[in-house]
Amino acid sequence: MDDTPDSHPRDSDRLIFAGLLGLAAAGVVQLIDKAELALGQLVAIYAFAVAIPLLAVGLVTDYARRAGTHIPAWRDLLGLFGSVASVVGLASFFFHFGFGPGITFTVGSVIGFLLIRAL
Questions:
Q1: Alpha carbon of 119 to those of 64, 95, 114: distances in Å?
Q2: Residue 11 half-sphere exposure, CB side, CA atoms within 13 Å?
Q3: Is the sign of the CA dihedral 22, 45, 60, 76 positive or negative?
Q4: Contact (CB, 8 A) for 79 and 61
Q5: Which of 2, 78, 91, 107 has the lowest tally of Cβ within 10 angstroms?
Q6: What local confidence, expressed as pLDDT, does residue 4 receive?
Q7: pLDDT digit string (tens) for 3-60?
């Protein structure tokens, strides 16, 4: 007899939210002692400032879903917006190093997204 709970199609959301939350926090910690920020770093700080609370809401929302709570669609969008903001923050770090690394990251991200959606 199997005692494991049935999986939900969105079970991986909490892992994604937690990972991106860690990424955003690490990005902020890396810039905390900078006296002046370049444009790419400033964009990253603002993106992470948006991402951190929205990812936390997404994480709690996912746990509420697992507990059986009905989740309205707009609550799921908050986690999505937080995820996008976190990736924008990371992308801005790459653009801080130059246009080439930024475009390379962006193209790689788009390809990765398309490959994942094709699963």
A1: 26, 29, 9
A2: 5
A3: negative
A4: yes
A5: 2
A6: 57
A7: 555 666 666 788 889 999 999 999 999 999 988 999 999 999 999 999 999 999 999 9
Reading the block at residue 89, the tokens are 């923050």
> Cα torsion for 71, 75, 76, 81, to the nearest 10°?
-170
The encoded tokens of residue 44 equal 């990253």
Burial (CB < 10 A; 0-12, 13-18, 19+), residue 94, is: buried
Distance CA 7, CA 100 (A): 41
Task: Fill in the amino acid letter for 93.
Answer: F
Structure-token match 């959301």, residue found: 13
- pTM for the structure as a whole: 0.83
Query: How far apart are the C-alpha atoms of 103 and 94, rounded to whole Å?
Result: 8
Res 66: pLDDT: 85
CA distance 66 to 69: 7
pLDDT tens readout for residues 75-102: 889 989 999 999 999 999 999 999 999 9
